[in-house]
Amino acid sequence: MRIGVIGAGAAGLAAAYDFASAGHGVAVYEAAPFVGGQASTIEVGGGRLERGYHHLFTNDFAILDLMDDLGTGASMRWIPSSVGIYTDQKVYRWSTPIDLLRFGALSLRDRVRMGMVAKRLQRMKDWRALEDITAAEWIRENAGASIYQKVWEPLLRGKFGDRFENVAMPWFWSKIQTRFASRDRLGREKLGYPVNSFDEVFDTLVERIRSMGGEVHLESPVARVLVENGTANGLRVKHPDGTETGESFDLVLSTVPSFAFPDLVDLPEAYRKKLNAVEYMGAVVMILEMTHPLTSVYWMNIADHEVPFLGLIEHTNLMPKEMYGGSNVLYLTNYVERPSELFSMSSEQLLDVYAPHLSRFNSEFDRSWITRVHHNRVSAAQPVIPMNYSQHIPEHQTPVSNLFLANTTQIYPEDRGTNYSVRMGREVAAAMLRGG
Ligand SMILES: Cc1cc2nc3c(=O)[nH]c(=O)nc-3n(C[C@H](O)[C@H](O)[C@H](O)COP(=O)(O)OP(=O)(O)OC[C@H]3O[C@@H](n4cnc5c(N)ncnc54)[C@H](O)[C@@H]3O)c2cc1C
Question: Could you tell me where the DSSP H helices lie in 132-287?
Fold first, then answer.
Protein backbone atom coordinates (compact mmCIF):
# COMPACT_ATOMS: atom_id res chain seq x y z
CA MET A 1 0.00 0.00 0.00
CA ARG A 2 0.93 3.64 -0.33
CA ILE A 3 0.11 5.68 2.76
CA GLY A 4 0.05 9.47 3.14
CA VAL A 5 0.77 11.06 6.53
CA ILE A 6 -0.04 14.70 7.33
CA GLY A 7 2.38 16.15 9.92
CA ALA A 8 5.93 15.19 10.96
CA GLY A 9 5.51 15.50 14.74
CA ALA A 10 5.88 12.61 17.18
CA ALA A 11 2.61 10.93 16.11
CA GLY A 12 3.12 11.24 12.34
CA LEU A 13 6.76 10.13 12.32
CA ALA A 14 6.17 7.18 14.68
CA ALA A 15 3.29 5.98 12.48
CA ALA A 16 5.29 6.50 9.27
CA TYR A 17 8.19 4.50 10.74
CA ASP A 18 5.84 1.56 11.37
CA PHE A 19 4.26 1.81 7.90
CA ALA A 20 7.70 1.76 6.28
CA SER A 21 8.92 -1.05 8.59
CA ALA A 22 5.89 -3.13 7.53
CA GLY A 23 7.01 -2.77 3.90
CA HIS A 24 4.50 -0.12 2.77
CA GLY A 25 5.22 3.00 0.76
CA VAL A 26 4.85 6.12 2.91
CA ALA A 27 5.04 9.86 2.29
CA VAL A 28 4.97 12.36 5.17
CA TYR A 29 4.07 15.99 4.46
CA GLU A 30 5.05 18.64 6.98
CA ALA A 31 4.01 22.29 6.72
CA ALA A 32 6.96 23.60 8.77
CA PRO A 33 10.57 23.71 7.53
CA PHE A 34 11.53 21.29 10.35
CA VAL A 35 10.33 18.00 11.84
CA GLY A 36 9.32 17.35 15.47
CA GLY A 37 6.24 19.60 15.67
CA GLN A 38 5.76 20.85 19.23
CA ALA A 39 8.93 19.04 20.34
CA SER A 40 11.11 20.52 17.58
CA THR A 41 14.35 22.34 18.34
CA ILE A 42 16.37 25.45 17.56
CA GLU A 43 20.11 26.05 17.69
CA VAL A 44 21.38 27.62 20.93
CA GLY A 45 25.10 28.19 21.42
CA GLY A 46 25.99 25.33 19.06
CA GLY A 47 23.58 22.86 20.77
CA ARG A 48 20.00 21.89 19.98
CA LEU A 49 17.26 23.01 22.35
CA GLU A 50 13.50 22.41 22.23
CA ARG A 51 11.36 25.40 21.24
CA GLY A 52 9.26 24.49 24.30
CA TYR A 53 10.93 22.88 27.37
CA HIS A 54 10.69 19.07 27.18
CA HIS A 55 11.54 16.20 29.51
CA LEU A 56 10.34 12.63 30.01
CA PHE A 57 9.12 10.63 32.99
CA THR A 58 10.37 7.16 33.87
CA ASN A 59 7.02 5.63 32.83
CA ASP A 60 7.05 7.17 29.34
CA PHE A 61 7.50 3.65 28.01
CA ALA A 62 6.27 4.20 24.44
CA ILE A 63 8.88 6.81 23.51
CA LEU A 64 11.62 5.10 25.55
CA ASP A 65 10.91 1.80 23.72
CA LEU A 66 10.95 3.61 20.37
CA MET A 67 14.30 5.19 21.24
CA ASP A 68 15.66 1.73 22.07
CA ASP A 69 14.34 0.42 18.71
CA LEU A 70 16.10 3.29 16.96
CA GLY A 71 19.35 2.76 18.86
CA THR A 72 19.18 6.18 20.56
CA GLY A 73 18.15 4.90 24.02
CA ALA A 74 21.67 5.37 25.40
CA SER A 75 21.22 9.13 25.00
CA MET A 76 18.72 9.27 27.85
CA ARG A 77 19.95 10.99 31.00
CA TRP A 78 17.93 10.62 34.22
CA ILE A 79 18.44 13.55 36.53
CA PRO A 80 16.99 14.26 40.00
CA SER A 81 14.51 17.08 39.42
CA SER A 82 14.40 20.26 41.45
CA VAL A 83 11.04 21.96 41.62
CA GLY A 84 9.96 25.19 43.28
CA ILE A 85 6.72 27.05 43.77
CA TYR A 86 6.38 30.82 43.98
CA THR A 87 3.57 32.05 46.19
CA ASP A 88 3.15 34.84 48.75
CA GLN A 89 6.12 36.56 47.05
CA LYS A 90 8.40 33.76 48.11
CA VAL A 91 10.06 30.74 46.48
CA TYR A 92 9.48 27.41 48.23
CA ARG A 93 11.15 24.12 47.40
CA TRP A 94 8.53 21.70 46.04
CA SER A 95 10.34 18.48 45.12
CA THR A 96 10.06 15.97 47.95
CA PRO A 97 7.61 15.06 50.76
CA ILE A 98 9.96 16.91 53.18
CA ASP A 99 9.63 20.06 51.04
CA LEU A 100 5.86 19.73 51.27
CA LEU A 101 6.06 19.51 55.07
CA ARG A 102 8.15 22.70 55.07
CA PHE A 103 5.77 24.56 52.73
CA GLY A 104 5.07 27.54 54.96
CA ALA A 105 2.40 29.05 52.70
CA LEU A 106 -0.08 26.52 54.14
CA SER A 107 -0.91 25.59 57.73
CA LEU A 108 0.71 22.36 58.95
CA ARG A 109 -2.71 20.70 58.89
CA ASP A 110 -3.20 21.65 55.22
CA ARG A 111 0.30 20.50 54.28
CA VAL A 112 -0.44 17.06 55.70
CA ARG A 113 -3.86 17.07 54.06
CA MET A 114 -2.39 17.98 50.68
CA GLY A 115 0.09 15.10 50.90
CA MET A 116 -2.69 12.71 51.85
CA VAL A 117 -4.94 13.83 48.99
CA ALA A 118 -2.08 13.37 46.49
CA LYS A 119 -1.34 9.91 47.91
CA ARG A 120 -5.02 8.99 47.67
CA LEU A 121 -5.08 9.99 44.01
CA GLN A 122 -1.92 8.04 43.37
CA ARG A 123 -3.52 4.89 44.80
CA MET A 124 -6.77 5.41 42.87
CA LYS A 125 -6.54 3.33 39.72
CA ASP A 126 -10.07 3.79 38.34
CA TRP A 127 -10.14 7.23 36.73
CA ARG A 128 -13.62 6.50 35.32
CA ALA A 129 -15.13 7.30 38.69
CA LEU A 130 -13.71 10.83 38.27
CA GLU A 131 -15.15 11.54 34.84
CA ASP A 132 -18.21 13.49 35.89
CA ILE A 133 -16.49 16.07 38.06
CA THR A 134 -14.16 18.92 37.18
CA ALA A 135 -10.67 19.10 38.63
CA ALA A 136 -11.55 22.40 40.36
CA GLU A 137 -14.65 20.93 42.06
CA TRP A 138 -12.89 17.74 43.13
CA ILE A 139 -9.92 19.59 44.63
CA ARG A 140 -12.18 22.07 46.45
CA GLU A 141 -14.27 19.23 47.88
CA ASN A 142 -11.41 16.90 48.81
CA ALA A 143 -8.51 19.19 49.64
CA GLY A 144 -10.46 22.15 50.99
CA ALA A 145 -10.69 25.82 50.07
CA SER A 146 -7.33 27.04 51.37
CA ILE A 147 -5.21 24.44 49.54
CA TYR A 148 -7.28 25.05 46.42
CA GLN A 149 -6.93 28.82 46.56
CA LYS A 150 -3.28 28.91 47.54
CA VAL A 151 -1.93 26.26 45.18
CA TRP A 152 -4.20 24.60 42.66
CA GLU A 153 -6.52 27.35 41.53
CA PRO A 154 -3.65 29.65 40.37
CA LEU A 155 -1.93 26.71 38.66
CA LEU A 156 -5.13 25.53 36.92
CA ARG A 157 -5.91 29.09 35.89
CA GLY A 158 -2.37 29.54 34.58
CA LYS A 159 -2.61 26.42 32.46
CA PHE A 160 -6.18 26.75 31.21
CA GLY A 161 -6.99 30.48 31.52
CA ASP A 162 -10.70 31.23 31.87
CA ARG A 163 -11.44 27.63 30.86
CA PHE A 164 -9.92 26.23 34.06
CA GLU A 165 -13.32 25.37 35.54
CA ASN A 166 -14.06 23.10 32.53
CA VAL A 167 -11.11 20.74 32.91
CA ALA A 168 -12.26 17.30 34.01
CA MET A 169 -10.72 15.52 37.00
CA PRO A 170 -9.05 12.68 34.98
CA TRP A 171 -6.56 15.29 33.71
CA PHE A 172 -5.48 16.11 37.28
CA TRP A 173 -5.51 12.43 38.27
CA SER A 174 -3.21 11.56 35.36
CA LYS A 175 -0.79 14.37 36.30
CA ILE A 176 -0.52 13.01 39.86
CA GLN A 177 -0.07 9.46 38.53
CA THR A 178 2.77 10.51 36.20
CA ARG A 179 4.59 12.59 38.80
CA PHE A 180 4.44 9.78 41.39
CA ALA A 181 5.52 7.15 38.85
CA SER A 182 8.75 9.07 38.28
CA ARG A 183 9.64 9.03 42.03
CA ASP A 184 11.69 6.59 44.08
CA ARG A 185 10.68 5.14 47.47
CA LEU A 186 11.84 8.31 49.25
CA GLY A 187 9.70 10.48 46.99
CA ARG A 188 12.60 11.85 44.94
CA GLU A 189 11.64 12.56 41.35
CA LYS A 190 13.79 11.80 38.31
CA LEU A 191 13.27 13.43 34.96
CA GLY A 192 14.69 12.24 31.66
CA TYR A 193 16.24 14.18 28.83
CA PRO A 194 17.88 12.85 25.63
CA VAL A 195 21.35 14.38 25.80
CA ASN A 196 21.37 15.17 22.08
CA SER A 197 17.89 16.76 22.41
CA PHE A 198 14.59 15.35 21.08
CA ASP A 199 15.99 16.14 17.63
CA GLU A 200 18.01 12.95 17.71
CA VAL A 201 14.82 10.91 18.01
CA PHE A 202 13.06 12.71 15.15
CA ASP A 203 16.12 12.89 12.89
CA THR A 204 16.75 9.17 13.36
CA LEU A 205 13.10 8.42 12.57
CA VAL A 206 13.37 10.44 9.33
CA GLU A 207 16.63 8.71 8.44
CA ARG A 208 15.07 5.26 8.98
CA ILE A 209 11.88 6.10 7.09
CA ARG A 210 13.94 7.33 4.13
CA SER A 211 16.32 4.35 4.26
CA MET A 212 13.26 2.07 3.88
CA GLY A 213 12.15 3.99 0.78
CA GLY A 214 9.73 6.36 2.54
CA GLU A 215 9.54 10.10 1.89
CA VAL A 216 9.49 13.04 4.32
CA HIS A 217 8.70 16.40 2.71
CA LEU A 218 9.22 19.66 4.60
CA GLU A 219 7.55 23.01 3.83
CA SER A 220 4.86 20.96 2.12
CA PRO A 221 1.48 21.71 3.71
CA VAL A 222 -1.43 19.52 2.77
CA ALA A 223 -4.23 21.75 1.43
CA ARG A 224 -6.90 19.09 1.01
CA VAL A 225 -7.61 15.40 1.48
CA LEU A 226 -8.89 14.07 -1.85
CA VAL A 227 -12.10 12.05 -1.49
CA GLU A 228 -14.10 10.06 -4.02
CA ASN A 229 -17.38 8.33 -3.15
CA GLY A 230 -16.79 8.78 0.58
CA THR A 231 -13.29 7.27 0.42
CA ALA A 232 -10.01 9.16 0.82
CA ASN A 233 -7.69 8.42 -2.08
CA GLY A 234 -5.08 11.16 -2.06
CA LEU A 235 -3.75 14.50 -0.85
CA ARG A 236 -3.43 17.90 -2.47
CA VAL A 237 0.01 19.13 -1.46
CA LYS A 238 1.59 22.60 -1.75
CA HIS A 239 5.30 22.35 -2.53
CA PRO A 240 8.10 24.74 -1.49
CA ASP A 241 8.40 26.00 -5.11
CA GLY A 242 4.78 27.20 -4.99
CA THR A 243 3.33 24.41 -7.14
CA GLU A 244 0.48 22.14 -6.02
CA THR A 245 0.05 18.49 -6.89
CA GLY A 246 -2.42 15.72 -6.17
CA GLU A 247 -0.79 12.59 -4.71
CA SER A 248 -2.57 9.22 -4.69
CA PHE A 249 -2.74 7.11 -1.53
CA ASP A 250 -4.56 3.98 -0.36
CA LEU A 251 -4.75 5.22 3.24
CA VAL A 252 -4.31 8.65 4.83
CA LEU A 253 -3.37 9.55 8.43
CA SER A 254 -3.80 13.14 9.59
CA THR A 255 -2.13 14.41 12.78
CA VAL A 256 -3.30 18.03 12.50
CA PRO A 257 -5.20 19.68 15.40
CA SER A 258 -8.99 19.21 15.52
CA PHE A 259 -9.70 22.84 14.63
CA ALA A 260 -7.64 22.55 11.41
CA PHE A 261 -8.94 19.15 10.27
CA PRO A 262 -12.32 20.33 8.86
CA ASP A 263 -10.40 22.73 6.56
CA LEU A 264 -8.82 19.70 4.89
CA VAL A 265 -11.91 17.57 4.35
CA ASP A 266 -15.73 17.73 4.49
CA LEU A 267 -16.96 15.84 7.54
CA PRO A 268 -20.45 14.94 8.79
CA GLU A 269 -21.91 17.24 11.45
CA ALA A 270 -21.80 14.57 14.21
CA TYR A 271 -18.03 14.07 13.80
CA ARG A 272 -17.35 17.81 13.60
CA LYS A 273 -19.27 18.21 16.85
CA LYS A 274 -16.88 15.75 18.50
CA LEU A 275 -13.89 17.67 17.13
CA ASN A 276 -15.35 20.90 18.52
CA ALA A 277 -15.96 19.43 22.00
CA VAL A 278 -12.34 20.13 22.89
CA GLU A 279 -10.89 23.62 22.90
CA TYR A 280 -7.13 24.19 22.84
CA MET A 281 -5.02 26.62 24.81
CA GLY A 282 -2.17 28.16 22.86
CA ALA A 283 1.27 28.63 24.40
CA VAL A 284 3.73 31.49 24.32
CA VAL A 285 7.23 30.33 25.18
CA MET A 286 10.16 32.69 25.51
CA ILE A 287 13.71 31.40 25.81
CA LEU A 288 16.31 33.67 27.39
CA GLU A 289 20.02 33.01 26.96
CA MET A 290 21.64 34.56 30.03
CA THR A 291 25.09 35.19 31.48
CA HIS A 292 23.91 34.15 34.98
CA PRO A 293 21.50 31.54 36.34
CA LEU A 294 18.26 33.04 37.67
CA THR A 295 17.46 30.35 40.27
CA SER A 296 18.80 27.00 41.40
CA VAL A 297 15.70 24.98 40.43
CA TYR A 298 14.75 23.39 37.13
CA TRP A 299 10.99 23.88 37.31
CA MET A 300 9.34 26.81 39.07
CA ASN A 301 5.54 26.82 39.33
CA ILE A 302 4.07 30.28 39.71
CA ALA A 303 1.01 30.39 41.98
CA ASP A 304 0.73 34.17 42.05
CA HIS A 305 -1.74 36.16 39.92
CA GLU A 306 0.56 39.19 39.85
CA VAL A 307 3.31 37.39 37.92
CA PRO A 308 2.51 37.54 34.19
CA PHE A 309 3.84 34.05 33.35
CA LEU A 310 2.90 30.56 34.52
CA GLY A 311 6.29 28.98 34.89
CA LEU A 312 10.05 29.40 34.80
CA ILE A 313 11.93 26.40 33.48
CA GLU A 314 15.66 26.75 33.89
CA HIS A 315 16.91 24.12 31.49
CA THR A 316 20.54 24.54 32.49
CA ASN A 317 19.58 23.46 36.01
CA LEU A 318 18.77 20.09 34.39
CA MET A 319 21.48 19.88 31.71
CA PRO A 320 24.95 21.51 31.77
CA LYS A 321 25.22 24.97 30.23
CA GLU A 322 28.32 23.88 28.30
CA MET A 323 25.89 22.15 25.90
CA TYR A 324 24.66 25.63 24.90
CA GLY A 325 27.95 27.46 24.46
CA GLY A 326 28.05 28.39 28.16
CA SER A 327 24.71 30.23 28.19
CA ASN A 328 22.25 29.79 31.02
CA VAL A 329 18.97 28.83 29.36
CA LEU A 330 15.69 29.97 30.89
CA TYR A 331 12.21 29.35 29.50
CA LEU A 332 9.34 31.68 30.46
CA THR A 333 6.05 30.05 29.64
CA ASN A 334 2.38 30.90 29.43
CA TYR A 335 -0.70 29.09 28.23
CA VAL A 336 -3.02 31.60 26.59
CA GLU A 337 -6.05 31.94 24.36
CA ARG A 338 -5.42 32.31 20.67
CA PRO A 339 -5.93 35.07 19.80
CA SER A 340 -5.02 37.09 22.88
CA GLU A 341 -2.81 40.05 23.71
CA LEU A 342 0.10 37.93 24.99
CA PHE A 343 -0.16 35.54 22.03
CA SER A 344 0.22 38.34 19.51
CA MET A 345 2.94 40.38 21.29
CA SER A 346 6.38 40.79 19.73
CA SER A 347 9.47 39.48 21.59
CA GLU A 348 10.33 43.02 22.73
CA GLN A 349 6.83 43.70 24.05
CA LEU A 350 6.73 40.35 25.83
CA LEU A 351 10.12 40.89 27.42
CA ASP A 352 9.03 44.34 28.61
CA VAL A 353 6.08 42.67 30.39
CA TYR A 354 8.08 39.74 31.80
CA ALA A 355 11.52 41.14 32.68
CA PRO A 356 10.48 43.42 35.59
CA HIS A 357 9.20 40.29 37.41
CA LEU A 358 12.43 38.28 37.17
CA SER A 359 13.97 40.05 40.16
CA ARG A 360 11.28 38.38 42.32
CA PHE A 361 13.29 35.17 41.85
CA ASN A 362 16.76 36.65 42.16
CA SER A 363 17.15 40.14 43.59
CA GLU A 364 20.44 40.60 41.71
CA PHE A 365 18.84 39.98 38.31
CA ASP A 366 19.73 42.62 35.76
CA ARG A 367 18.36 42.86 32.25
CA SER A 368 21.93 43.02 30.96
CA TRP A 369 22.21 39.31 31.86
CA ILE A 370 19.99 38.55 28.85
CA THR A 371 22.17 38.06 25.78
CA ARG A 372 19.65 36.58 23.37
CA VAL A 373 15.91 36.00 23.19
CA HIS A 374 13.93 33.34 21.28
CA HIS A 375 10.17 33.40 21.05
CA ASN A 376 7.77 30.63 20.06
CA ARG A 377 3.98 30.52 19.68
CA VAL A 378 2.18 27.17 19.69
CA SER A 379 -1.45 27.25 18.61
CA ALA A 380 -2.58 23.75 19.68
CA ALA A 381 -0.47 23.47 22.83
CA GLN A 382 -2.91 22.06 25.38
CA PRO A 383 -6.31 20.49 24.79
CA VAL A 384 -8.89 21.36 27.46
CA ILE A 385 -10.48 17.97 28.10
CA PRO A 386 -14.08 18.27 29.37
CA MET A 387 -16.11 15.97 31.67
CA ASN A 388 -17.26 12.49 30.56
CA TYR A 389 -14.91 12.69 27.62
CA SER A 390 -14.59 8.92 27.16
CA GLN A 391 -18.01 9.06 25.47
CA HIS A 392 -17.10 11.92 23.14
CA ILE A 393 -13.55 11.23 21.88
CA PRO A 394 -13.44 11.55 18.09
CA GLU A 395 -12.77 8.11 16.58
CA HIS A 396 -9.40 7.61 14.88
CA GLN A 397 -11.26 6.10 11.91
CA THR A 398 -13.11 9.13 10.57
CA PRO A 399 -16.47 8.88 8.77
CA VAL A 400 -14.48 9.15 5.49
CA SER A 401 -13.26 5.65 4.56
CA ASN A 402 -9.48 5.18 4.61
CA LEU A 403 -8.96 8.50 6.43
CA PHE A 404 -7.69 8.41 10.02
CA LEU A 405 -7.02 11.08 12.64
CA ALA A 406 -4.46 10.97 15.48
CA ASN A 407 -4.06 14.20 17.45
CA THR A 408 -3.58 15.18 21.09
CA THR A 409 -7.33 15.48 21.78
CA GLN A 410 -7.54 11.70 21.38
CA ILE A 411 -5.11 11.04 24.23
CA TYR A 412 -7.14 10.21 27.31
CA PRO A 413 -7.13 9.99 30.31
CA GLU A 414 -3.42 10.91 30.24
CA ASP A 415 -2.34 14.46 29.52
CA ARG A 416 -0.82 15.02 26.10
CA GLY A 417 2.94 14.43 25.72
CA THR A 418 5.48 13.07 23.24
CA ASN A 419 5.18 9.62 24.82
CA TYR A 420 1.45 9.46 24.23
CA SER A 421 1.68 10.83 20.68
CA VAL A 422 4.23 8.12 19.86
CA ARG A 423 1.98 5.47 21.45
CA MET A 424 -1.09 6.75 19.61
CA GLY A 425 0.74 7.08 16.27
CA ARG A 426 1.92 3.48 16.49
CA GLU A 427 -1.45 2.11 17.68
CA VAL A 428 -3.35 3.90 14.93
CA ALA A 429 -0.80 2.74 12.34
CA ALA A 430 -1.32 -0.86 13.49
CA ALA A 431 -5.12 -0.46 13.33
CA MET A 432 -4.90 1.05 9.83
CA LEU A 433 -2.80 -1.88 8.63
CA ARG A 434 -5.31 -4.31 10.17
CA GLY A 435 -8.05 -2.62 8.16
CA GLY A 436 -9.46 -0.01 10.54
C1 LIG B 1 5.29 24.30 25.71
C2 LIG B 1 5.16 22.82 25.61
C3 LIG B 1 5.88 22.02 26.49
C4 LIG B 1 5.77 20.63 26.40
N5 LIG B 1 6.49 19.85 27.26
C6 LIG B 1 6.48 18.51 27.11
C7 LIG B 1 7.31 17.69 27.89
O8 LIG B 1 8.03 18.16 28.77
N9 LIG B 1 7.31 16.35 27.66
C10 LIG B 1 6.51 15.79 26.70
O11 LIG B 1 6.58 14.57 26.50
N12 LIG B 1 5.67 16.54 25.97
C13 LIG B 1 5.63 17.88 26.14
N14 LIG B 1 4.82 18.65 25.38
C15 LIG B 1 3.80 18.03 24.52
C16 LIG B 1 4.38 17.41 23.26
O17 LIG B 1 5.29 18.27 22.63
C18 LIG B 1 3.22 17.13 22.29
O19 LIG B 1 2.17 16.48 22.97
C20 LIG B 1 3.65 16.27 21.12
O21 LIG B 1 4.89 16.71 20.59
C22 LIG B 1 2.57 16.33 20.06
O23 LIG B 1 2.98 15.58 18.93
P24 LIG B 1 1.95 15.39 17.73
O25 LIG B 1 2.66 14.70 16.64
O26 LIG B 1 0.72 14.74 18.26
O27 LIG B 1 1.52 16.86 17.31
P28 LIG B 1 2.43 18.06 16.75
O29 LIG B 1 3.75 18.07 17.38
O30 LIG B 1 1.57 19.28 16.87
O31 LIG B 1 2.60 17.67 15.21
C32 LIG B 1 1.64 17.95 14.22
C33 LIG B 1 2.42 18.40 12.98
O34 LIG B 1 1.47 18.62 11.92
C35 LIG B 1 1.96 19.70 11.15
N36 LIG B 1 0.82 20.21 10.34
C37 LIG B 1 -0.29 20.87 10.78
N38 LIG B 1 -1.09 21.14 9.72
C39 LIG B 1 -0.50 20.62 8.62
C40 LIG B 1 -0.84 20.56 7.24
N41 LIG B 1 -1.99 21.08 6.76
N42 LIG B 1 0.03 19.96 6.38
C43 LIG B 1 1.20 19.40 6.81
N44 LIG B 1 1.58 19.47 8.12
C45 LIG B 1 0.73 20.04 9.00
C46 LIG B 1 2.46 20.68 12.20
O47 LIG B 1 3.34 21.63 11.63
C48 LIG B 1 3.15 19.72 13.18
O49 LIG B 1 4.50 19.55 12.86
C50 LIG B 1 4.90 20.04 25.44
C51 LIG B 1 4.18 20.85 24.55
C52 LIG B 1 4.30 22.23 24.64
C53 LIG B 1 3.51 23.09 23.68
Answer: 135-143, 145-147, 153-160, 169-181, 199-211, 269-276
Instruction: Phi first, then psi: give them for residue 291, nearest 5 degrees.
Output: -80, -25
Cα separation, 112 vs 237, in Å, equals 57
Structural domains of the chain ordered from first start? 2-41+57-68+197-278+391-434 (3.50.50.60)
Mutational pocket test of ligand 1: of 418, 426, 428, the residue with most ligand atoms within 8 Å of the beta carbon? 418
Residue type, 154: P
- Tell me: the pLDDT tens digits for 311-328? 999 999 999 999 999 999
Between CA 198 and CA 326 the distance in angstroms is 20
Residue nearest to atom 6 of ligand 1 (CA): 54
Cβ of residue 334 lying under 6 Å from some atom of ligand 1? no
* Atom of ligand 1 minimally distant from the CA of 222: 42
Q: What are phi and psi of 124, to 5 degrees?
A: -75, 120
The whole-number pLDDT of residue 187 equals: 85
Are residues 319 and 77 in contact, defined by beta-carbon separation less than 8 angstroms?
A: yes
